[in-house]
Amino acid sequence: MGPQEPQVLIVGCGPVGLTARALLARWGVRSLLIEKHGELSPFPRSRLVNVRSMEIFRRLGLDGPVAARAFAPEYGRVRFRDTLHGPDFATAAMTGIREPVPESPVTGVVTSQDRLEPTLLGAADAPVRFGTELVGLTEEADGVVALLADHRSGAEERVRAGYLLAADGAHSTVRRLLGIGTSGPGALGGFTTVVFDADLGRWCAREPAGVYFTAHGSFLPLYPEGGWAWFGPTPEDPAHADWSGVVARGLGPGAGVRPEVLRVQHWVMHAFVADRLREGRVLLAGDAGHAVPIVGGLGMNAGVADVHNLCWKLAGVLHGWADPRLLESYGTERGPVAHATLRQAVANAELAGRVMNRRREQLRTGAAASTPVDVPWSERFFAQLGLILGVTYRSTAVLTGDGDGTPPEPADPGTDYVPTAEPGRRLPHLWLGRDRSTLDTCGEWFTLLAPDPAAWAPRPGLPWPLRVEPLAAEHADACGLTPDGALLVRPDGHIAARWPRRPPTGTALTHALTTTTGTRPAGR
């Protein structure tokens, strides 16, 4: 590849593509990001940055800036009302958002996507080309060739890159061009988002929430300083809809507020997983690979985790310390997560629907308006740490107890999370010092954590980026280690190998790195 050609072409300038751009920049990988629209999206879209995404942003130095533009923690709650003006008939906190959880060094936030994206855009200097659409794609033996159309000039050009990362959404052009099918419920219906201005603080300031579900659509505060959005099913004749009146009905009778409509966007809620996440040198991430219902805030966060899993592998292949076969583990690891995420998101939507249906039944039978609803999830709505932090990867990039990669798919973690240092799991968060977590030892390198780091000093000349870090003796037991054991942690924070005690031979570390990356060390 020429020195000016991008090593990775990223298609799509949403949070997933922008996160990939920032991660690749940290690895010293040249990228070019293209976006068919002329600017970042002006719509709020995604609302929730969960604890795992914030851990990834912490590694990029962005957790502070993201939190600074987000809502206060008390907005980490959902409320159900007949109208926005009415009282709650059900409510639930968002786990890991409302307050810190001991399993993570960070707390998730409620923030609008149009506040998040500028922060991610400023995290790297790699080029971004707005108003540029991918209209054609071919793959060669050592790269991909993309045909790009400039919407401003009408000109077309061909750009060659080593790999293409498709983060171009549920209607992915890349997925369509490759002929990759999908499975799942598919389109769940048309919805409309209305961004409006109204003074609603006197109703909501004492009972804040990230989302208010009502019988007439849902309301979302957009920014700490003000602004609102309503979303609900799109009516039959949206072109002639009185959107101000639609929103006013959700506010409630006697509200005395006439909302000022600023922007209207129609969209379709999708629920599917792509049949495969990789086709040769093209890889799908985020909604291009798996689109899920928005209830629960899982979609964008799953996409951020996708590229966190993928970018270190691309860097290893492009820098020569990993074999291209390592990229096969991307789909093997993230595919099961995509299916589990879809199942959870559909369950979230069904639970939210059950709450509203129970309320309607109460009103139909004449129950008092103040009668509480028996919440079907028993405070477990948004309690999804098992899915967020408890993902277990099984692939050739993970060594099990017998020292070899293994393909079986792990069980669905569900909502519960139990920290463990088993291979394939995210490294448990343990404090190593003031504001320094075990997760902070991970970065653009493999990390070897050992109570006795001197006993695990690697031999000189290894081709892989590797750092050896001491693990406090009091944490050894929590990680399943004896005083002479060790953990090998991948750059994405997942455990590649665990040795409860030091093996009798001195080749265990080299074997683990070789197996994880599919390579052979120099001289062998």
Strand content of the residues, in percent?
25-35%
Uncertain residue segments: 402-411
Mean pLDDT: 89
- Proportion in helices: 25-40%
- Total number of beta strands: 25
Assign an overall shape. Answer: globular
Largest sheet: 8 strands, mixed
Compute the gyration radius: what is it?
24 Å
Give me the number of helical elements: 12
Q: Which class do the helix and strand fractions yield? A: alpha+beta
Topology, please?
Elements: E1 8-11, H1 15-26, E2 31-35, E3 48-49, H2 51-59, H3 63-68, E4 77-81, E5 88-93, E6 109-110, H4 113-121, E7 128-130, E8 132-140, E9 143-150, E10 156-161, E11 163-166, H5 173-178, E12 182-197, H6 201-204, E13 211-214, E14 217-223, E15 226-233, H7 243-251, E16 260-274, E17 278-279, E18 282-284, E19 290-291, H8 299-319, H9 328-364, H10 385-389, E20 431-433, E21 436-437, E22 446-450, E23 466-470, H11 473-476, E24 486-489, E25 495-499, H12 508-517
Parallel strand pairs: 1-2, 1-11, 2-7, 4-13, 11-18, 22-23
Antiparallel strand pairs: 3-6, 4-5, 8-9, 9-10, 12-15, 12-16, 13-14, 14-15, 16-19, 17-18, 20-21, 22-24, 24-25
